[in-house]
Structure formats: C-alpha cells, structure tokens
Specification:
The longest helix is centred in the middle third of the chain and has 21 residues. The chain has a single domain, classed as Rossmann fold, CATH 3.40.50.1820. The protein is of the alpha/beta class. Helix 3 links the parallel strand 1 and strand 2.
Length: 231
C-alpha cells in the first residue's frame, strides 16, 4: 500500500467476513447482506469512495457498486467475475464449495493453504521471490478454519446472485485488471468490458491471477493512474 500512498492515495484496508480481522465472525453473519453492512460501517465517515477488490473481494466490490451506486466513485476489479449465470452451474459450484468447506473444517488451514496454492490458477506464483511466497503463506495461515469455511458457504460464487444483467447500468468508471496467463479471467474481463458503459481494461503480460503480487509495478501504475483521475 506504500505505493498508493506515494501516489497521493490513502487506502483503507477491509477484511471480508471470514478472513483476517473478521475471521471469528459467526457463520450466520458471513453473508452478502452482512458484508454490505460491514463495508457501510467502515466507510461511514466517507461521502463517496473508490473501491478496489481482488478475486472474491472483487466480486464483493462489484456487489457494493451495484447496491450503493451513490457511494462508489470509481471501481477497480482485479481477476474478478460478476458470478455464474445459470442455476445448474450455481448448484454445482455450491456443492463444490460446501465440500471444500468441510475439508477445511476437517483438515485445518495449513492443509487447505497447501492445497489452494497447488491449484493451476496459481502456477505463475511459483516464480515469485521466496520471501514474498513465505509472507503470503504466513498471512493465509492466520485465517481460521471456521471463517474460511463460512466464507465459502456464504460468499461463494454459487451462493451470491450473478450480476451480469446489472453491468450495463453501472455508472461509475471501472478498471478491469487481469494477468494474461490467467486465460479464464481474461475472457471474463473482456466479456464484462463489453457491457460496462465506462471501462478501462488492463491485461498484464507474463503473469497470472494475482497481478498485484506478480507484477506490482504494473498494478500500481494502472490503479494509481485510474484512481488519480477521480481526485
């Protein structure tokens, strides 16, 4: 976040329910409605704000922008999706997320982190410096099994409503960032870009799902420039 501060942007970091500082939230409060209320509470001192979200955080950020169009000034979505269209796909994803949630509860966070980082989605992260990978692992291990399981059940892609039909009504400027090696999310971002009225699309070459980690200067240049236009 030091880079954003250098660019004159003061970030406010928000943990999603089930993660980080909110890892011990009761499972029945790890829902979209409670998440929106939490974000409202933590931004209550601001009339309007810019919102940046990555992956699941990006999906939540899009829900905030749709639900609170008068509050969100500019929106940055990194490797994020508006959700799954079609009930069959949503049912299948809910079942997969429920199974993974049970696995986290049974095996613990360390086993889950090992499994999660081995997914093909994160293959490109293997080229990260060892100190970066170790810091990322330590941060992931700070999460609680119950919190992560609740987030999968309450905020997963199959649980949240899809927002594809809302995209053409989104009035705030949007920056979409993806890594060129992350072909699934590159295609999603391109489809999203067609539907947004005011959009900028950045595809970072040579990196995958986590652009902010794999190409931090590319991410900073894109985000800093975009948010700076709203100042």
């Amino acid at each position: 976040m030091r880079g954003l501060r250098t660019a004159g942007i003061e970030p406010l970091l928000l943990d999603l329910p089930g993660h980080g500082a909110h890892g011990d939230v009761p499972p029945d409060r790890v829902t979209l409605d409670h998440t929106l209320a939490l974000i409202d509470e933590q931004t209550s001192h601001l009339d309007r704000y810019d919102l940046v979200g990555y992956s699941m955080g990006g999906r939540i950020a899009l829900h905030v922008a749709v639900a609170r169009p008068h509050r969100v000034r500019r929106l940055v979505l990194e490797s994020a999706s508006p959700g799954l269209a079609g009930e069959d796909a949503r049912v299948a994803r809910r079942a997969a997320d429920s199974s993974l949630a049970e696995r986290i509860e049974d095996e613990g966070v360390a086993a889950f982190v090992s499994y999660w980082t081995s997914l093909p989605l994160f293959d490109s992260q293997r080229a990260l410096p060892e100190n970066v990978k170790e810091r990322l692992r330590r941060l992931r291990l700070e999460n609680k099994p119950g919190g992560l399981a609740a987030a999968l059940r309450g905020l997963g892609t199959g649980t949240l409503p899809d927002l594809w039909s809302h995209l053409n009504g989104l009035v705030c400027p949007v920056l979409l960032i993806t890594g060129a090696l992350d072909t699934k999310f590159v295609l999603i971002a391109r489809d999203v870009a067609v539907l947004l009225p005011d959009v900028r699309l950045v595809e970072a070459s040579g990196v995958g799902h986590s652009v902010h980690l794999e190409a931090p200067q590319v991410w900073l240049d894109a985000v800093g420039s975009f948010l700076g236009e709203g100042v």
